[in-house]
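Example 3.2
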Amino acid sequence: MAIANVRDLHVYSEASDCAMELFERSKSWPKEERFALTDQIRRSSRSVRANLSEAWAERAYPRHFASRVTDAHGEAEETLTWILFAERCGHLSPDVAGQLAARYRQLSGGLVKMIATRDRWCSPAKRR
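Structure, written as tokens:
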């Protein structure tokens, strides 16, 4: 299947699914975590997808594209950190945290691969 827009990317759909799962799970976390862990994990998980959208829009400029995908990778790694904190605080079970962590590690790997192969995504045919 040809990739016509950012929503066709596996990393984009996985980032979206993971962010929504974290959003749903974080609804039940204690109120005292609202402005700390809950806000941080929601923000960083959503930012992965947002940075991918910006990267896709900047494909005409390989350095900008790589920079935005790098930002998405950083946000995925930050989210992984918050998942591990949520587990240690008892807000996520070890099984759920392990599954989410594995998904974010795979997502991070996909983003690193996109950075390494940016010419594939930023070829002259894909530029404005």
